[in-house]
Amino acid sequence: MYVNTSNITLPDDDNTVIWKYLDLSKFLDMLLSRQLFMSRSDKFEDQYEGTFSEPTFEEIKKIAADNPEFLDFYKSHREKVTISSWHINEYESFAMWQIFTQNTEGLAIQTTIGRLKRALEKEKKTEQFIGEVNYIDYKKEFIPFDDNFFPFLFKRKSFQYEREIRIISDMSKKGIRIDNGLKVDVDLDEMIEKIYIHPKSENWYKKLVIELVSKLGFDFKIEKSDLESDILI
To answer: I need a surface site. Which of 56, 105, 121, 153 has the fewest CB within 10 A?
Structure first.
Protein backbone atom coordinates (compact mmCIF):
# COMPACT_ATOMS: atom_id res chain seq x y z
CA MET A 1 0.00 0.00 0.00
CA TYR A 2 1.08 3.58 -0.59
CA VAL A 3 2.19 5.30 2.61
CA ASN A 4 2.53 9.06 2.94
CA THR A 5 5.42 10.47 4.96
CA SER A 6 6.86 13.93 5.54
CA ASN A 7 10.42 12.60 5.16
CA ILE A 8 10.24 12.52 1.37
CA THR A 9 8.90 15.11 -1.03
CA LEU A 10 6.64 15.02 -4.07
CA PRO A 11 5.11 17.71 -6.29
CA ASP A 12 2.03 19.10 -4.53
CA ASP A 13 -0.21 18.55 -7.54
CA ASP A 14 -1.48 14.96 -7.78
CA ASN A 15 -2.27 15.66 -11.45
CA THR A 16 1.44 15.92 -12.26
CA VAL A 17 2.04 13.73 -15.32
CA ILE A 18 4.57 10.90 -15.05
CA TRP A 19 5.78 8.25 -17.49
CA LYS A 20 7.30 4.79 -17.53
CA TYR A 21 9.16 3.70 -20.68
CA LEU A 22 9.58 -0.04 -21.13
CA ASP A 23 9.90 -2.90 -23.61
CA LEU A 24 6.93 -4.99 -24.74
CA SER A 25 8.11 -8.07 -22.82
CA LYS A 26 8.15 -6.19 -19.51
CA PHE A 27 4.80 -4.61 -20.27
CA LEU A 28 3.21 -8.00 -21.03
CA ASP A 29 4.67 -9.46 -17.85
CA MET A 30 3.00 -6.60 -15.95
CA LEU A 31 -0.37 -7.30 -17.58
CA LEU A 32 -0.18 -11.07 -17.10
CA SER A 33 0.83 -10.87 -13.45
CA ARG A 34 -1.20 -7.71 -12.73
CA GLN A 35 1.81 -6.66 -10.70
CA LEU A 36 4.47 -3.95 -10.85
CA PHE A 37 8.11 -5.05 -10.85
CA MET A 38 10.43 -3.18 -8.48
CA SER A 39 14.16 -3.68 -8.99
CA ARG A 40 16.59 -4.33 -6.15
CA SER A 41 18.45 -1.06 -5.61
CA ASP A 42 21.93 -2.52 -6.20
CA LYS A 43 20.92 -4.01 -9.56
CA PHE A 44 20.68 -0.71 -11.43
CA GLU A 45 23.22 0.14 -14.13
CA ASP A 46 24.42 3.18 -12.17
CA GLN A 47 27.10 1.83 -9.81
CA TYR A 48 26.57 4.80 -7.48
CA GLU A 49 22.94 3.79 -6.87
CA GLY A 50 22.25 3.75 -3.13
CA THR A 51 25.77 4.86 -2.22
CA PHE A 52 27.09 7.87 -0.31
CA SER A 53 28.34 11.24 -1.45
CA GLU A 54 31.92 11.97 -0.36
CA PRO A 55 31.00 14.41 2.48
CA THR A 56 28.44 11.93 3.80
CA PHE A 57 30.91 9.05 3.66
CA GLU A 58 33.42 11.06 5.71
CA GLU A 59 30.79 11.56 8.42
CA ILE A 60 29.78 7.90 8.37
CA LYS A 61 33.42 6.78 8.67
CA LYS A 62 33.72 8.78 11.91
CA ILE A 63 30.68 7.02 13.35
CA ALA A 64 31.81 3.63 12.06
CA ALA A 65 35.21 3.99 13.75
CA ASP A 66 33.58 3.13 17.08
CA ASN A 67 30.66 1.19 15.61
CA PRO A 68 31.72 -0.92 12.56
CA GLU A 69 28.25 -2.44 12.27
CA PHE A 70 26.88 0.98 11.32
CA LEU A 71 28.69 0.92 7.96
CA ASP A 72 27.99 -2.79 7.41
CA PHE A 73 24.26 -2.10 7.78
CA TYR A 74 24.25 0.45 4.96
CA LYS A 75 26.30 -1.81 2.70
CA SER A 76 23.83 -4.68 3.05
CA HIS A 77 20.75 -2.43 3.09
CA ARG A 78 20.96 -1.92 -0.70
CA GLU A 79 20.00 -5.58 -1.15
CA LYS A 80 16.77 -5.08 0.77
CA VAL A 81 15.43 -1.93 -0.90
CA THR A 82 13.39 -2.13 -4.12
CA ILE A 83 12.66 0.70 -6.55
CA SER A 84 10.35 1.45 -9.49
CA SER A 85 11.41 4.47 -11.54
CA TRP A 86 9.09 6.98 -13.27
CA HIS A 87 9.78 10.16 -15.25
CA ILE A 88 8.11 13.54 -14.59
CA ASN A 89 7.19 15.33 -17.80
CA GLU A 90 4.09 16.99 -19.19
CA TYR A 91 5.08 15.62 -22.59
CA GLU A 92 6.85 12.62 -24.08
CA SER A 93 10.63 12.58 -23.93
CA PHE A 94 12.70 11.62 -26.97
CA ALA A 95 15.66 10.91 -24.67
CA MET A 96 13.62 8.50 -22.52
CA TRP A 97 12.54 6.55 -25.61
CA GLN A 98 16.20 6.21 -26.61
CA ILE A 99 17.46 5.15 -23.20
CA PHE A 100 14.76 2.88 -21.80
CA THR A 101 13.46 1.01 -24.86
CA GLN A 102 15.86 -1.41 -26.51
CA ASN A 103 14.33 -1.27 -29.99
CA THR A 104 11.33 0.10 -31.85
CA GLU A 105 9.03 -2.36 -30.06
CA GLY A 106 8.80 -0.32 -26.87
CA LEU A 107 6.00 1.66 -25.31
CA ALA A 108 5.34 4.25 -22.64
CA ILE A 109 2.80 4.29 -19.83
CA GLN A 110 1.37 7.72 -19.05
CA THR A 111 -0.26 8.35 -15.68
CA THR A 112 -0.28 10.88 -12.83
CA ILE A 113 1.15 10.86 -9.32
CA GLY A 114 -2.38 10.69 -7.89
CA ARG A 115 -3.34 7.68 -10.01
CA LEU A 116 -0.12 5.92 -9.03
CA LYS A 117 -0.85 6.45 -5.33
CA ARG A 118 -4.35 5.01 -5.70
CA ALA A 119 -3.13 2.09 -7.80
CA LEU A 120 -0.73 1.01 -5.06
CA GLU A 121 -3.54 0.75 -2.49
CA LYS A 122 -4.20 -2.74 -3.88
CA GLU A 123 -0.92 -4.02 -2.44
CA LYS A 124 -1.52 -5.20 1.13
CA LYS A 125 1.65 -7.16 1.97
CA THR A 126 4.23 -4.38 1.73
CA GLU A 127 4.46 -0.61 2.06
CA GLN A 128 5.45 1.67 -0.81
CA PHE A 129 6.67 5.23 -0.53
CA ILE A 130 6.81 7.66 -3.45
CA GLY A 131 9.42 10.39 -3.60
CA GLU A 132 11.16 12.78 -5.96
CA VAL A 133 14.86 12.20 -6.62
CA ASN A 134 17.33 14.93 -5.63
CA TYR A 135 20.28 15.48 -8.00
CA ILE A 136 23.46 16.60 -6.26
CA ASP A 137 27.23 16.91 -6.64
CA TYR A 138 28.54 13.73 -4.98
CA LYS A 139 31.95 15.28 -4.42
CA LYS A 140 30.67 18.35 -2.57
CA GLU A 141 27.13 17.91 -1.24
CA PHE A 142 26.02 16.15 1.91
CA ILE A 143 23.23 13.54 1.92
CA PRO A 144 21.40 13.44 5.27
CA PHE A 145 21.23 9.94 6.72
CA ASP A 146 18.52 10.36 9.32
CA ASP A 147 15.86 8.07 7.83
CA ASN A 148 15.39 4.77 5.97
CA PHE A 149 15.09 6.52 2.59
CA PHE A 150 18.74 7.52 2.69
CA PRO A 151 20.43 7.46 0.22
CA PHE A 152 17.91 6.11 -2.29
CA LEU A 153 16.38 9.46 -3.24
CA PHE A 154 19.68 11.01 -4.32
CA LYS A 155 21.55 10.69 -7.61
CA ARG A 156 24.44 12.45 -9.33
CA LYS A 157 23.72 15.65 -11.26
CA SER A 158 24.65 13.92 -14.52
CA PHE A 159 21.32 12.04 -14.26
CA GLN A 160 19.26 15.22 -13.84
CA TYR A 161 17.63 14.72 -17.26
CA GLU A 162 15.75 11.71 -15.83
CA ARG A 163 13.55 13.94 -13.60
CA GLU A 164 12.81 10.82 -11.62
CA ILE A 165 9.98 9.89 -9.28
CA ARG A 166 10.56 6.68 -7.37
CA ILE A 167 8.40 4.11 -5.66
CA ILE A 168 10.52 2.71 -2.84
CA SER A 169 9.92 -0.30 -0.63
CA ASP A 170 12.20 -1.27 2.27
CA MET A 171 12.01 -5.02 2.83
CA SER A 172 14.64 -5.25 5.57
CA LYS A 173 12.07 -6.08 8.28
CA LYS A 174 10.02 -8.50 6.16
CA GLY A 175 12.54 -11.33 6.01
CA ILE A 176 11.78 -11.79 2.31
CA ARG A 177 14.64 -12.90 0.05
CA ILE A 178 15.01 -10.60 -2.94
CA ASP A 179 16.96 -11.75 -5.98
CA ASN A 180 16.67 -9.23 -8.82
CA GLY A 181 13.60 -7.51 -7.46
CA LEU A 182 10.07 -7.82 -6.16
CA LYS A 183 6.59 -7.74 -7.70
CA VAL A 184 3.81 -5.87 -5.91
CA ASP A 185 0.06 -5.94 -6.57
CA VAL A 186 -1.24 -2.89 -8.39
CA ASP A 187 -4.52 -1.73 -9.89
CA LEU A 188 -3.48 -1.49 -13.53
CA ASP A 189 -6.73 0.15 -14.65
CA GLU A 190 -6.05 2.96 -12.17
CA MET A 191 -2.32 3.15 -12.84
CA ILE A 192 -2.40 3.23 -16.66
CA GLU A 193 -4.14 6.31 -18.04
CA LYS A 194 -2.81 5.96 -21.58
CA ILE A 195 -0.27 3.93 -23.56
CA TYR A 196 1.96 5.41 -26.26
CA ILE A 197 3.55 3.24 -28.94
CA HIS A 198 7.21 3.75 -29.90
CA PRO A 199 7.55 6.59 -32.47
CA LYS A 200 9.60 4.44 -34.87
CA SER A 201 7.35 1.37 -34.73
CA GLU A 202 5.33 0.02 -37.67
CA ASN A 203 1.53 0.09 -37.81
CA TRP A 204 1.36 -3.71 -37.35
CA TYR A 205 3.04 -3.27 -33.97
CA LYS A 206 0.38 -0.88 -32.73
CA LYS A 207 -2.32 -3.31 -33.89
CA LEU A 208 -0.53 -6.14 -32.08
CA VAL A 209 -0.38 -4.20 -28.82
CA ILE A 210 -4.06 -3.28 -29.09
CA GLU A 211 -5.00 -6.92 -29.71
CA LEU A 212 -2.86 -8.25 -26.84
CA VAL A 213 -4.21 -5.68 -24.39
CA SER A 214 -7.79 -6.49 -25.40
CA LYS A 215 -7.32 -10.27 -25.12
CA LEU A 216 -5.91 -9.84 -21.62
CA GLY A 217 -9.10 -8.04 -20.58
CA PHE A 218 -7.93 -4.42 -20.50
CA ASP A 219 -9.34 -1.35 -22.24
CA PHE A 220 -6.51 1.17 -22.12
CA LYS A 221 -6.39 4.09 -24.52
CA ILE A 222 -3.53 3.34 -26.93
CA GLU A 223 -1.96 5.90 -29.26
CA LYS A 224 1.07 6.20 -31.50
CA SER A 225 3.76 8.48 -30.09
CA ASP A 226 3.19 12.21 -30.61
CA LEU A 227 6.79 12.37 -31.85
CA GLU A 228 5.59 10.65 -35.04
CA SER A 229 3.04 13.36 -35.98
CA ASP A 230 2.62 14.43 -39.61
CA ILE A 231 5.09 17.05 -40.84
CA LEU A 232 3.39 20.30 -41.78
CA ILE A 233 5.08 22.48 -44.43
So the answer is: 121
